[in-house]
Design a protein that fits this description.
single chain, about 270 residues, Spore Coat Polysaccharide Biosynthesis Protein SpsA, Chain A, nine-stranded mixed beta sheet, 9 strands
Length: about 270
Amino acid sequence: MSFCIVVPTLNQGPFLSEALNCLSRQGDVLSQIIIYDAGSTDETPQIIQKYLASEPRAVAHTRADSGQSDALNKGFKQSTGSYLGYLNSDDILNNDALAKAFAIFSSHPSIDIVTGSRSFIGPAGRKILSLKPFPLAHLEKPWTTGFFQEATFWRRSAYERAGGFIDTELRFAMDVDLWVRMRQNGSRVYRDPTILGFFRLHGSSKSITKANTDARREIAQISNQNKFGFEDYTAISSANWRSIQSEIGFIRTLILRKKIGLVHKPSVFRRF
């Protein structure tokens, strides 16, 4: 009974070592680290080879793919762990994230998804702000988008009940689609208020460069596929979306002004 974490990457050399090293600190509950490099042309190949020499739990594949979702599918198909998750190569797990998730899964056999709090960090790793998970009543709704991806882990059995795949048509909201399918298949959620993951924001982050277009388009697609009705879905999640957009806009401004880490305290942020 252990975790497998899949790490998709492409030209994230400045951040990759920190992401991989945080996995090595997760302890014995992590048995498998699967790295998929889509053909990086920066220092990524050298970083991966150095890491493989020191981390026996890790395997790596370098091959072209059709996007992040495709890499995740390949990784999860290769995985053997009872619990799954993925870490984008510019993000970080807290050192005890998997130990906490493992303890929750072990003591709550009916729980299928564990999700925790997130801290945003800047390019150099400085903490910007922290967000608690959405209330459990929100997370348990079948249409919820309220999970923090790097701070969320799930049982293999829940993943398989939801079809056992990541939608390759999605390049931004593939995690939302997975949460929706798992919830629709009866997966139960445990909300851990402690920080499990660190989400890095930098100039080339998808959350900064594509959030206003790709996210809304893909969430609308997920809504329509699941017959939520996009108008209803938008009404339900409008407060959510305004909060997210405020966060992204504020952090984008900091990046453009090169002031990451010099954070004011706007009321929109749910802080610890």
